[in-house]
Amino acid sequence: MTGVRKGLAKVEIGLRWDPSPAGTPAHDLDIVAAVFGAADLHGVPVHLVHFGSRSPDGTITLNRDSHTGQGFGFDEVMTLELNRMAPDLQRVVVGVIIQDTGAERAITFADVAGTGLRIREGYTDLAQGDFGSVPSATAATVAEFTRDASGAWSLDARLHGFDSDPEEFTRTMGVLR
Q: What is the pLDDT of residues 130-170, one digit of tens each?
């Protein structure tokens, strides 16, 4: 899953996965977005958007949230209205976290069947993929949106796995690599 595209306005991130086998704890994957200001592009996010929240300015919303992966199509969907973001917001990093659902050990992407990710603008798919290249990760960044000097947003869709709990992941997902 790679690609760069410039001049983005309104983008949708879709995440899907199959439900866990009967009799086992549910797999709960969550999309999270960290927004960074011009003063600190790789440090502390200006705001963090995840399940049960939205950005204070309403430009990032989680339209669909699943705790089990049941349903048709994409189980979680997040919309980023990049064209409406304040000029001082310069970078958005989007990731996926596997929540702890009480299993005996940490669940990794190798344990979750049928994963898929789609990034699109309107009806145009910008990137598609799954988590097969990061099987031992418990979280992953999937996209980085950056604003250039002219104000145009671009996408760098690269998968980078993390072996960390959700709290640590949200603190480190935006660091410079």
A: 999 999 999 999 999 999 999 999 999 999 999 988 888 88
Residues forming beta bridges with residue 153, ordered by sequence position: 8, 147
Residue with tokens 């789609």: 118
Pairing mode of beta strands 60-64, 139-147: unpaired
Q: What pTM was estimated for this model as a whole?
A: 0.90
Q: How many Å apart are CA 76 and CA 51, to the nearest integer?
A: 10
Q: How many residues does the chain have?
A: 177
Answer whether 145's CB lies under 8 Å from 91's CB. Answer: yes
CA dist 6 → 3, 41, 58, 83, 132 (Å): 10, 19, 22, 12, 27
Half-sphere exposure of 22 (CA within 13 A, CB side): 0
Distance between CA atoms of residues 88 and 64, nearest Å: 28
87-134 pLDDT per residue, tens: 999 999 999 999 876 666 788 999 999 999 999 999 999 999 999 999
Pairing between strand 60-64 and 76-81? antiparallel
